[in-house]
């Protein structure tokens, strides 16, 4: 629960960001249908958001709504971003459904990975100066693959703009400053990717379906009506008040941190490109429909050509759930592998990313001379589906959250990095591999040994005296840092119960509970102290259940009520809370969490390995099974 951003986006099956290119420090994961980069936090957010309307292009279904709409959508967008173009029809639909109540203000947010996005933004603002912003806006989104100076000039002429003025405005530093200001204003609200929308100050991230927009718009319309009536406000004054009083961000589930150290990925039966005995192995998790994966593919080929015999590429499937054609494309690649043409088909898919429908996949196979009947049968077979699913699980277990994603001898390199970044990483790995090469190791043997020798040190937390359940001598210890007021902590309790009840883990798991009340949960501290009072009186797990079952009622009076219900002395509990008897013990747990760099809840350490967030049960099982294997159980 670390980031103060309200993200009302549907989380994908695996909680992955969209295909990302990491060019700066790693950003927080984005919602599906959003392209992300890191951004600085600057400026007075509420004030800047309101002032923007003086300079931004604004549209509404009616002229009256341009100044008096009760709901203002500020759209942060990038003309080269495919998800941004996808969101445009949704915004048009919202304006149609709310003709008198919604207006849209557009903020250019060109991402650094899109080389033509800033030029397109300048063209749109230059057109705005001649009253043709929205016409240029539509043209830019309609020609995302052809954004260049020639197109801007041509479109300006078609729109009847003064050519000399348009050219001068394109190069006006004031326009560049306006673009930079919009990005800084958005950053103050936590916006780091596109498309993102501030709806009366409430953040909605990604190319969400229209129902997701309607949910927020309806809530904001109700809030606007209430505010307008109570304070006699309208127009920009109403909007300013709504932005200032926008609902506080809901606390978020902690994000699983990127893997540190070397991560092992099984190479069995995976396609290999390059020298099989190469000292450096790059495991590539990719998605055939991801545009950044296509860019990275070209870079990988350049890297191989520049470093013959030094590096090999090992492929793993990773179709993202929001790419509608990706999964079948990956099944098709697996079918091509069955006929010895995996890498040729791999190149076909990346060379024809706009042709990944079923018929096109079959055509690509025929172009390569594959047996069509066998190809189709293999593409649709349960065995092929299982291979792709197994790769997805392997990626999830390795901490992969987006594509493209690479591990060089187990060391993470994320995103469509430029060739120098890959070469630099490769050089480091070649240096690290020298002692292994000297021992005669190569290929798979070198890969396995270098990762085995460089496992991260296990995380150690003192659990003496902490409440636990399960066998005291269990080979696997799950240390759970939790907050009784955190909704995600409540959610994960069912998962823990399922693990404890699983016959496969009978006698093998011990769960140790540590207190980590977060400062923005006003009742969490006293709830944690009450839990330790109950522990001292032999009733920890009974009190634990009472509080998680009643997260909305954790005031002292209710804590006393729960104590009475489980047979504890309510007066003694109140005295303990008033005297801060257990405050130091709670603070000690929090200090233990900080010692292993845990700052959000729920967080877990399983036999020294970190697992963050209310993860699905299969993720827990993966870590537990690995721990049991290491323990020889």
The termini sit apart by 34 Å
Mean pLDDT level: 87
CATH C-level class of the largest domain: Alpha Beta
Q: Tell me, briefly, the overall form.
A: flat
Q: Number of folding domains? A: 3
Please state the structural category.
Answer: alpha+beta
CATH superfamily of the largest domain: Glutaredoxin
Helix content: 40-55%
CATH-level-2 architecture of the largest domain: 3-Layer(aba) Sandwich
Taking pLDDT < 50 over at least 5 consecutive residues as the criterion, the unreliable ranges are: 1-32, 34-46
Strand order of the largest sheet: 2-4-3-6-7
Count of DSSP-assigned helices: 25
CATH topology of the largest domain: Glutaredoxin
Number of strands: 17
Radius of gyration: 28 Å
Strand content: 5-15%
Q: How would a textbook summarize the main sheet?
A: 5 strands, mixed
What does this structure look like?
By secondary structure, this protein is of the alpha+beta class. The chain has three domains: 51-244, 3-Layer(aba) Sandwich (Glutaredoxin); 272-452, 3-Layer(aba) Sandwich (Glutaredoxin); 468-630, Glutaredoxin (3-Layer(aba) Sandwich). 48% of the residues lie in helices and 12% in strands. Strands 2-4-3-6-7 form a five-stranded mixed sheet. A five-stranded mixed sheet has the order 8-10-9-11-12, sandwiched between helices. Helix 4 runs antiparallel to helix 5 and helix 12 (326-337) packs antiparallel against helix 13. It is flat and about 80 Å long. The protein starts with 34 loop residues before the first strand and ends with a helix.
């Amino acid at each position: 629960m670390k980031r103060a951003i309200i993200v009302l986006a549907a989380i994908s099956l695996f909680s992955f960001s969209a295909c990302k290119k990491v060019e700066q420090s790693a950003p927080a994961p984005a919602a599906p249908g959003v392209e992300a980069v890191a951004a600085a936090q600057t400026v007075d957010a509420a004030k800047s958001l309101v002032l923007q309307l003086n300079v931004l292009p604004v549209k509404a279904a009616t002229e009256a709504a341009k100044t008096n709409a009760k709901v203002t959508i500020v759209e942060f967008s990038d003309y080269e971003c495919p998800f941004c173009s996808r969101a445009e029809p949704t915004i048009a639909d919202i304006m149609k459904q709310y003709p008198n109540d919604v207006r849209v203000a557009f903020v250019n947010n060109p991402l650094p990975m899109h080389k033509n996005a800033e030029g397109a933004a300048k063209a749109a603002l230059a057109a705005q100066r001649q009253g043709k912003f929205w016409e240029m806006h539509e043209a830019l989104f309609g020609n995302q693959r052809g954004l260049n100076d020639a197109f801007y000039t041509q479109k300006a002429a078609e729109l009847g703009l003064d050519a000399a003025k348009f050219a001068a405005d394109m190069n006006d530093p004031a326009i560049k400053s306006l673009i930079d200001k919009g990005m800084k204003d958005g950053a103050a609200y936590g916006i780091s990717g596109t498309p993102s929308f501030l709806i009366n100050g409430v953040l909605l991230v990604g190319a969400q379906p229209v129902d997701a927009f309607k949910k927020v718009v309806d809530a904001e319309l109700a809030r606007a009506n209430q505010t307008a009536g109570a304070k006699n406000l309208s127009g920009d004054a109403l909007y300013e008040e709504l932005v200032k009083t926008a609902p506080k961000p809901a606390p978020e589930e902690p994000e699983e941190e990127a893997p540190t150290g070397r991560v092992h990925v099984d190479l069995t039966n995976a396609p290999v490109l390059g020298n099989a005995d190469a000292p450096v192995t790059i495991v590539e998790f990719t998605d055939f429909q991801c545009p950044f994966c296509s860019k990275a593919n070209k870079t990988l080929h350049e890297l191989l050509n520049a470093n013959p015999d030094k590096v090999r590429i090992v492929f793993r499937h990773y179709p993202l759930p929001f790419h509608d054609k990706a999964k079948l494309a990956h099944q098709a690649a697996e079918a091509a592998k069955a006929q010895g043409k995996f890498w040729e088909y791999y190149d076909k898919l990346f060379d024809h990313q706009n042709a990944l429908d079923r018929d096109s996949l079959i055509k690509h196979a025929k172009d390569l001379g594959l047996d069509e009947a066998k190809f189709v049968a293999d593409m649709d077979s349960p065995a092929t589906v299982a291979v792709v699913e197994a790769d997805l699980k392997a990626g999830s277990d390795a901490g992969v959250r987006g594509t493209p994603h690479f591990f060089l001898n187990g060391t993470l390199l994320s995103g469509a990095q430029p060739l120098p970044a890959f070469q630099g990483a490769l050089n480091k790995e070649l240096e690290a591999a020298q002692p292994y090469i000297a021992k005669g190791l190569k290929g798979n043997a070198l890969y396995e040994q270098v990762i085995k020798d460089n496992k991260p040190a296990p995380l150690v937390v003192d659990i003496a005296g902490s409440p636990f359940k399960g066998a005291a001598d269990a080979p696997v210890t799950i240390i759970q840092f939790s907050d009784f007021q955190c909704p995600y902590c409540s959610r994960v309790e069912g998962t823990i119960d399922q693990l404890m009840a699983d016959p496969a883990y009978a006698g093998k798991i011990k769960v140790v509970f540590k207190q980590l009340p977060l400062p923005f949960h006003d009742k969490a501290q006293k709830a944690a102290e009450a839990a330790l009072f109950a522990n001292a009186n032999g009733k920890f797990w009974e009190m634990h259940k009472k509080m998680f079952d009643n997260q909305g009622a954790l005031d002292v009076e209710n804590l006393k009520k729960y104590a009475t219900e489980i047979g504890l002395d309510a007066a003694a509990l109140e005295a303990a809370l008033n005297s801060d008897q257990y405050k130091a013990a709670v603070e000690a747990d929090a200090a233990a969490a900080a010692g292993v760099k845990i700052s959000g809840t729920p967080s877990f350490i399983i036999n020294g390995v970190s697992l963050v967030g209310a993860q699905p049960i299969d993720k827990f099982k993966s870590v537990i099974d690995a721990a049991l294997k290491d323990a020889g159980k």
